[in-house]
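Listing S7. Sequence submitted for prediction.
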Amino acid sequence: MDEELLTGGHDSGPVTRVGETVRRPLRPWSRTVHALLRHLETAGFAGAPRVVGVEPAGGREILTFVPGTDGRSARCYDDEALIEVARLVRSLHDTAATFVPPPDAHWRPDPYAPPGPLVCHNDLGPANTIYRDGRPEAFIDWDFAAPTTALWDLGYAVRSFVPLYAPEDCVAMGYPPDRAAERLRLFADAYGMDRATRQELLPAVRARLEAQSSAFTDRCLRTLRDRWDDWLRALGG
Protein backbone atom coordinates (compact mmCIF):
# COMPACT_ATOMS: atom_id res chain seq x y z
CA MET A 1 0.00 0.00 0.00
CA ASP A 2 1.01 3.61 -0.50
CA GLU A 3 2.24 5.50 2.56
CA GLU A 4 0.84 8.91 3.46
CA LEU A 5 3.11 11.12 5.54
CA LEU A 6 1.27 12.48 8.56
CA THR A 7 2.05 15.82 10.15
CA GLY A 8 2.46 16.58 13.83
CA GLY A 9 4.30 14.74 16.55
CA HIS A 10 7.34 15.87 18.48
CA ASP A 11 10.57 14.08 17.65
CA SER A 12 9.33 10.58 16.90
CA GLY A 13 10.57 10.63 13.31
CA PRO A 14 8.41 10.24 10.20
CA VAL A 15 4.89 9.01 10.92
CA THR A 16 2.95 7.52 8.02
CA ARG A 17 -0.50 6.14 7.36
CA VAL A 18 -0.75 2.80 5.56
CA GLY A 19 -4.39 1.87 4.95
CA GLU A 20 -6.10 1.90 8.33
CA THR A 21 -2.85 1.76 10.29
CA VAL A 22 -0.19 4.22 11.42
CA ARG A 23 3.52 3.35 11.28
CA ARG A 24 5.93 5.05 13.68
CA PRO A 25 9.63 4.43 14.43
CA LEU A 26 10.21 2.23 17.46
CA ARG A 27 11.70 4.00 20.46
CA PRO A 28 13.29 2.46 23.57
CA TRP A 29 10.00 2.91 25.46
CA SER A 30 7.65 1.79 22.65
CA ARG A 31 7.06 -1.75 23.90
CA THR A 32 6.23 -0.50 27.39
CA VAL A 33 3.75 1.96 25.90
CA HIS A 34 2.31 -0.95 23.91
CA ALA A 35 1.67 -2.77 27.18
CA LEU A 36 -0.22 0.27 28.45
CA LEU A 37 -2.28 0.60 25.25
CA ARG A 38 -3.17 -3.10 25.34
CA HIS A 39 -4.32 -2.72 28.93
CA LEU A 40 -6.52 0.25 27.99
CA GLU A 41 -8.04 -1.79 25.17
CA THR A 42 -8.68 -4.84 27.36
CA ALA A 43 -10.21 -2.65 30.06
CA GLY A 44 -12.62 -1.08 27.56
CA PHE A 45 -11.15 2.40 27.21
CA ALA A 46 -12.00 3.46 23.65
CA GLY A 47 -10.05 6.73 23.56
CA ALA A 48 -6.67 5.46 22.35
CA PRO A 49 -5.28 3.77 19.26
CA ARG A 50 -4.85 -0.01 19.35
CA VAL A 51 -1.57 -1.83 19.00
CA VAL A 52 -1.44 -3.96 15.85
CA GLY A 53 2.16 -5.05 16.23
CA VAL A 54 5.67 -4.36 14.97
CA GLU A 55 6.92 -4.58 11.40
CA PRO A 56 9.12 -7.64 10.75
CA ALA A 57 11.67 -5.30 9.23
CA GLY A 58 12.10 -1.55 9.36
CA GLY A 59 11.83 -1.06 13.09
CA ARG A 60 8.38 0.51 13.10
CA GLU A 61 5.41 0.01 15.36
CA ILE A 62 1.96 -0.47 13.85
CA LEU A 63 -1.04 1.19 15.49
CA THR A 64 -4.62 1.57 14.33
CA PHE A 65 -5.43 4.82 12.52
CA VAL A 66 -8.00 6.93 14.39
CA PRO A 67 -10.17 8.72 11.79
CA GLY A 68 -10.96 12.35 12.41
CA THR A 69 -9.11 15.64 12.79
CA ASP A 70 -6.76 16.75 15.53
CA GLY A 71 -7.78 19.68 17.66
CA ARG A 72 -5.54 22.19 15.93
CA SER A 73 -7.61 21.85 12.76
CA ALA A 74 -10.93 20.72 14.20
CA ARG A 75 -11.10 23.88 16.36
CA CYS A 76 -13.70 22.35 18.68
CA TYR A 77 -13.85 25.10 21.26
CA ASP A 78 -17.45 24.84 22.44
CA ASP A 79 -18.26 23.99 26.04
CA GLU A 80 -19.67 20.54 25.27
CA ALA A 81 -16.43 19.49 23.58
CA LEU A 82 -14.50 20.71 26.63
CA ILE A 83 -16.78 18.76 28.97
CA GLU A 84 -16.37 15.59 26.94
CA VAL A 85 -12.58 16.00 26.88
CA ALA A 86 -12.56 16.28 30.68
CA ARG A 87 -14.66 13.13 30.97
CA LEU A 88 -12.33 11.32 28.57
CA VAL A 89 -9.32 12.33 30.68
CA ARG A 90 -11.06 11.05 33.82
CA SER A 91 -11.91 7.77 32.10
CA LEU A 92 -8.27 7.42 31.04
CA HIS A 93 -7.01 8.01 34.58
CA ASP A 94 -9.51 5.58 36.09
CA THR A 95 -8.61 2.88 33.57
CA ALA A 96 -4.85 3.43 33.83
CA ALA A 97 -5.08 3.11 37.62
CA THR A 98 -5.40 -0.67 37.23
CA PHE A 99 -2.41 -1.00 34.89
CA VAL A 100 0.58 -2.92 36.23
CA PRO A 101 3.70 -2.10 34.17
CA PRO A 102 5.85 -5.03 33.05
CA PRO A 103 8.92 -5.80 35.18
CA ASP A 104 11.23 -4.50 32.44
CA ALA A 105 9.24 -1.31 31.86
CA HIS A 106 11.19 1.47 30.16
CA TRP A 107 9.57 4.90 30.01
CA ARG A 108 10.72 8.05 28.26
CA PRO A 109 12.81 9.99 30.81
CA ASP A 110 11.40 13.24 32.14
CA PRO A 111 13.58 14.92 34.78
CA TYR A 112 10.81 17.38 35.65
CA ALA A 113 7.84 15.08 36.29
CA PRO A 114 7.19 14.15 39.92
CA PRO A 115 7.20 10.42 40.68
CA GLY A 116 3.79 8.89 41.17
CA PRO A 117 1.76 5.70 40.91
CA LEU A 118 -0.41 6.57 37.92
CA VAL A 119 0.74 6.00 34.35
CA CYS A 120 -0.39 9.15 32.54
CA HIS A 121 -0.34 10.41 28.95
CA ASN A 122 1.61 13.52 30.01
CA ASP A 123 0.97 15.46 26.78
CA LEU A 124 -2.78 15.94 26.71
CA GLY A 125 -3.83 18.81 24.48
CA PRO A 126 -5.76 19.56 21.29
CA ALA A 127 -2.79 18.62 19.08
CA ASN A 128 -2.87 15.09 20.50
CA THR A 129 -6.66 14.71 20.49
CA ILE A 130 -8.63 13.41 17.53
CA TYR A 131 -12.10 14.93 17.08
CA ARG A 132 -14.96 13.62 14.97
CA ASP A 133 -18.23 15.47 14.41
CA GLY A 134 -17.09 18.09 16.87
CA ARG A 135 -16.42 15.71 19.74
CA PRO A 136 -13.21 14.14 21.11
CA GLU A 137 -12.68 10.53 20.09
CA ALA A 138 -9.17 9.56 21.20
CA PHE A 139 -5.83 10.71 22.50
CA ILE A 140 -2.83 9.97 20.28
CA ASP A 141 0.98 10.30 20.51
CA TRP A 142 1.68 8.34 23.69
CA ASP A 143 5.49 8.73 23.62
CA PHE A 144 5.51 10.74 26.85
CA ALA A 145 3.41 8.24 28.82
CA ALA A 146 5.04 7.41 32.17
CA PRO A 147 4.22 7.01 35.85
CA THR A 148 3.57 10.30 37.64
CA THR A 149 0.53 11.92 39.28
CA ALA A 150 -2.90 12.77 37.92
CA LEU A 151 -2.25 16.40 38.87
CA TRP A 152 0.84 16.52 36.64
CA ASP A 153 -1.28 15.30 33.73
CA LEU A 154 -4.13 17.67 34.58
CA GLY A 155 -1.83 20.67 34.92
CA TYR A 156 -0.96 20.44 31.24
CA ALA A 157 -4.43 19.36 30.11
CA VAL A 158 -6.41 22.21 31.65
CA ARG A 159 -3.97 24.83 30.41
CA SER A 160 -4.21 23.41 26.89
CA PHE A 161 -7.91 22.63 26.63
CA VAL A 162 -9.57 25.43 28.66
CA PRO A 163 -7.16 27.14 27.72
CA LEU A 164 -5.33 29.17 30.34
CA TYR A 165 -3.66 31.55 27.89
CA ALA A 166 -3.36 35.32 27.76
CA PRO A 167 -6.49 36.92 26.24
CA GLU A 168 -4.62 38.03 23.12
CA ASP A 169 -3.35 34.49 22.57
CA CYS A 170 -6.87 33.12 22.96
CA VAL A 171 -8.13 35.54 20.31
CA ALA A 172 -5.31 34.62 17.95
CA MET A 173 -6.10 30.90 18.31
CA GLY A 174 -9.87 31.24 18.13
CA TYR A 175 -10.75 30.62 21.78
CA PRO A 176 -13.10 32.88 23.74
CA PRO A 177 -10.80 35.41 25.46
CA ASP A 178 -12.90 36.13 28.54
CA ARG A 179 -14.32 32.76 29.69
CA ALA A 180 -11.25 30.99 31.08
CA ALA A 181 -12.53 30.93 34.67
CA GLU A 182 -15.94 29.61 33.61
CA ARG A 183 -14.45 26.96 31.35
CA LEU A 184 -11.94 25.93 34.03
CA ARG A 185 -14.88 25.24 36.34
CA LEU A 186 -16.62 23.25 33.59
CA PHE A 187 -13.54 21.08 33.13
CA ALA A 188 -13.11 20.51 36.88
CA ASP A 189 -16.77 19.58 37.31
CA ALA A 190 -16.81 17.24 34.31
CA TYR A 191 -13.63 15.51 35.45
CA GLY A 192 -15.12 15.14 38.93
CA MET A 193 -12.32 16.87 40.82
CA ASP A 194 -12.53 16.75 44.57
CA ARG A 195 -11.78 19.79 46.71
CA ALA A 196 -8.14 18.86 47.30
CA THR A 197 -7.47 18.44 43.58
CA ARG A 198 -9.10 21.80 42.80
CA GLN A 199 -6.90 23.52 45.38
CA GLU A 200 -3.74 21.93 43.94
CA LEU A 201 -4.63 22.34 40.27
CA LEU A 202 -3.29 25.84 39.57
CA PRO A 203 0.03 25.10 41.32
CA ALA A 204 0.24 22.06 39.02
CA VAL A 205 -0.36 24.29 35.99
CA ARG A 206 2.45 26.54 37.16
CA ALA A 207 4.76 23.56 37.73
CA ARG A 208 4.15 22.32 34.19
CA LEU A 209 4.88 25.77 32.78
CA GLU A 210 8.10 26.02 34.77
CA ALA A 211 9.12 22.55 33.56
CA GLN A 212 8.46 23.51 29.93
CA SER A 213 10.49 26.69 30.35
CA SER A 214 13.39 24.78 31.93
CA ALA A 215 13.31 22.10 29.23
CA PHE A 216 13.39 24.73 26.47
CA THR A 217 16.28 26.57 28.11
CA ASP A 218 18.20 23.33 28.61
CA ARG A 219 17.79 22.38 24.94
CA CYS A 220 18.98 25.80 23.78
CA LEU A 221 22.02 25.70 26.05
CA ARG A 222 22.93 22.19 24.91
CA THR A 223 22.72 23.27 21.28
CA LEU A 224 24.89 26.31 21.96
CA ARG A 225 27.47 24.17 23.75
CA ASP A 226 27.50 21.42 21.13
CA ARG A 227 27.75 23.77 18.14
CA TRP A 228 29.93 26.44 19.71
CA ASP A 229 33.14 25.56 17.85
CA ASP A 230 31.36 25.22 14.49
CA TRP A 231 29.65 28.57 14.86
CA LEU A 232 32.82 30.21 16.10
CA ARG A 233 34.72 28.98 13.01
CA ALA A 234 31.89 30.26 10.79
CA LEU A 235 32.39 33.70 12.33
CA GLY A 236 36.12 33.49 11.67
CA GLY A 237 36.98 33.47 15.35
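Caption to Listing S7: primary sequence and predicted C-alpha coordinates for the chain studied. Residues 69-213 form a domain with the Aminoglycoside 3'-phosphotransferase; Chain: A, domain 2 fold (CATH 3.90.1200.10). The chain has a mean pLDDT of 93.
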